[in-house]
Amino acid sequence: MKCEATRTPDDVDIPALREKYRHERDKRIRSDGQKQYFKPTGAVAANYAVDPHTPIATRAPISEDIDVIVLGAGWGGIMASYHLTQAGITNFRNVDTAGDFGGVWYWNQYPGIQCDNDAYCYLPLLEETGFMPSKKFADGVEIQQYAKLIAKKFDFADKALFHTHINSLHWDEGIKRWRVGTNRGDDIRARFVVLACGVLNMPKLPAIPGIDTFKGKVFHTARWDYRYTGGSYENPVLDKLAGKRVAIVGTGATAIQAVPHLAKYAKALYVIQRTPSSVDERPNPGTEAEWVKSLKAGWQKERQTNFHRAAMEGLRPGEPDLICDIWTEISRNLAAQFEAEGWPQLGLEEFLARRERMDYRVMERLRQRVEQLVADKNTAEALKPYYRFLCKRPLSSDDFYPTFNRPNVELIDVSETKGVERMTPTGFTANGKEYEVDCMIFASGFEVTSDLKRRWGIDKVEGRGGTSIYDHWSEGPKTLHGTMTHGFPNQFYIGYIQGGLNASVTEQFGKQGHHIAHIISEALKRGIKSVEPSQKAQDDYVQRFKELEMDLSQFQRECPPGYFNNEGEDRPKWALFRSWGHGWDAFQQVLEEWRVKGDLDGLVLER
Question: Could you give the CA distance from residue 330 to residue 360 in angstroms, rounded to a whole number?
C-alpha cells in the first residue's frame, strides 16, 4: 500500500508563528543552563544509584592483559563487539554499570516503553540473526532480549563485566597499554579501549530546592521501582499505586509512554511540564508473516537507507516512503508536491525554504490534533508544541492526550516559572501552589549534550603525558574520522562525535564499530603497539569538517531549551546534529576509500 501525503493546514502565518516560537522559547530559558541539574546526594542518591532490576553479585578483582576493553554494553558497545568478532578479534570484554546487555534498554524498564521509531530499521543485524520484531514499534522488553541475543549469538555474552564502573583510564607508555581501574578493584591492562558510553547512559535530576527534604518515594524513570508501584516490566499493572498521589516531572519521550499507565492506577496524577512534546498518532501493527516471506536479501539495508533519506535528507524522484510515520512526514509531503510539479530543479536555499514551510504546516497539524483530543481548552493549549519539528524528539502515542480527560489527572505547566519551585517534606510547590504527593517520579532524561565528564562519569581519562581528555576536549571534540584523537593512542570513540550522522543511531554506531575494528585488526596483524592520529591529520580533518558543516545556529536559536541544544545554547559543543556536510553516504565513501588504500594514512604507527 502506498504511503500517502498527510493533510496539513495551508494557511499558516509563518512570521507570526516564528514570533510565537521565539516567545515560547525565551520564557523557558534559564540562566543556570546545565547547572539546573545536579548529582544527587543523600536519600535521593541512594534511590538513584541502585539497580532495581538485577541483584549485584560479589566477585573477586580481575588482573589481566587483554586486547580490547569496550566501555558499554548498549547498542554502541554491542555493535563494536560484533565488528570485533567479525574481524577475528575475540580477546575483549564489554564493561558496563548495568546488570546485563541493552544500555538504555536495560535501564529503561518503565511501564509502556517501546521503540520510538521503526523497529525494522532501529534493531540492527536482523538479517544476520534471523530475528524479526513483533511489531513496528517494538516493546522495550523485546528490544532488550534482542540485544542479549546478539551478544550470545556472536559469542561475547560470557565475557562481559556487569555492575562494574570504570573510574580511571590511564595510558601506560612503558607497556603501551591502557590501565583500566574499576570500582571492583580490577587492574586490566588493555591494548585498545573503545569508549561506547552512549548518549542515554547518565540519568539527570533537576536541582529542585528541598529535594532532600521530601519524605515520600522518589525515583528516576531509568530506575523504575516496581516494588513500590506494583506490576513488572513484562506486566506493568501498577496496582500498588491505588490510593496514592503521584507526580511525574517531564513530558518527553518517557513520560508520554508512562503517563497513561500511571493515570490508570494512581488516585491522583500530576504531570509537570516545562515544554510540551509533539505527539502524533501511533499505528502499531503486528509484523505480518506474508510480508516477512516477501522480503529479499538486503531488505534491511534498503529500508534503513530509505528511512535515513526520508527523515533527514529528502526522498528522491520515484522513491516510496517505506516507513510512513511522523519521522518521514515532511519529506513525504514535499515529495508529493515535487512530483505534482514534475520534480523541479531547486537550489539548496529554495529547497530549504520549501522544507521550512512544510515544517510549519506539519507542526500546525500536530497542534490541531491536541485540540481534537483534549477536552479542557486551557490544558490543550498548554500541551501544544510551538517550535520547529526537530527542536525536540518527535513522538507518537494514541493514549497520551486522552489521558488528560481523566478526572484524576492534572497538567501543571511550569513554563513561566521554568520548573518546580521547591519540594517539601510532603510534596512540591509549583506556580505558587503547594501539592501533596506520596511519590515523585523524574522523567527528566539523560545527560546527552552536557560536558563530557558529566556524561561519561569516569573520574580520570589520561592519555600520553598524563593529558586529560576533559582538558583536551574542553571546547568540543578534535578527532580523525570522529573515532580517534591525537595524544590518546589506541583509544576509540563511538557516538555523535564529528562524523557522519544517520537517522538510525544503531546504523551509525555500527559503521563506527566497523571502522574501529578495521584499525584494531590491522594494528594487531602488523604488530603495531600503538596507533593514533598525527597532529596534522587531526587538524586537517577538523578543519575540513568545519568547512563542510552546515550552520544550524539559526535553527538552534528558534528551539526551546532541551538536550538537543544543551539547554538553550546557540552552538553547543556536543550538539547531536553536527555531521559531515556532504551527507552520510559521502562520509562512508571517505572512510571506505581510506580503508581500501591500506596504509592507515594520517596515523602514527609505533611498533
Answer: 10
Q: What is the dihedral of CA 153, 517, 175, 466, to 10 degrees?
A: -110
- The SS3 of residue 165 is coil
Mean of pLDDT over the chain: 92
CA 236/CA 227 separation, integer angstroms: 11
pLDDT tens-digit readout, 122-141: 999 999 999 999 999 999 99
Instruction: Tell me the C-alpha distance between 556 and 117, whole Å.
Output: 23
Q: What whole-number distance in Å separates Cα of residue 93 and Cα of residue 161? A: 7
Q: How far is CA 39 from CA 47, 293, 482, in A?
A: 12, 50, 29
Strand, helix or coil at 478?
Answer: coil
Give me the DSSP letters along 180-237. EEETT--EEEEEEEEE---SS-SB-EE--TTGGG--SEEEEGGG--HHHH-S-SSS--
Set of cell numbers at residue 390: 526537530
**Which one of 29-38, 199-208, 360-369, 441-450 scores highest in mean pLDDT?**
360-369
For the cut 90, the answer to whether the pLDDT of residue 374 exceeds it is yes
- Distance between CA atoms of 500 and 579, rounded to whole angstroms? 5
Q: What is the pLDDT of residue 345?
A: 93
Residue 313 has what DSSP assignment?
A: I
Q: How far apart are CA 155 and CA 94, in angstroms?
A: 12
pLDDT at 207: 78
* Residues 589 and 525: beta-carbon distance below 8 Å: no
Going from the C-alpha of 516 to that of each of 20, 151, 170, 390, 480, the distances in angstroms are 45, 18, 20, 30, 12
SS3 192: strand
The owner of cell 513530558 is: 251
User: What nine digits make up the cell of 330?
Assistant: 515532511
Q: Residue 131 corresponds to which cell in the numbers above?
A: 530475528
What pLDDT score was predicted for residue 454? 74
